Amino acid sequence: MDNNFKVMILDEAGVIDSNDDSERYFVLGGIIYDYHNLEKIKLNLIPILDEYKEILCCEELKSSRLSGRKKDSNLIYGAILSHIRECEMITTFIYVLDKKSSYMMSFYDRKSFKYNKVIQWMIKDMIDNEIINSEDKFKILLDKITLSANEENNLKNWLKNNVANVISLDMEDSKDFYFIQIADLIAGIPKLKGTTPVNMMKDTKLRILKPDLVHIFPYSQNHKYVK
Question: Structure pTM?
Answer without folding.
Answer: 0.88
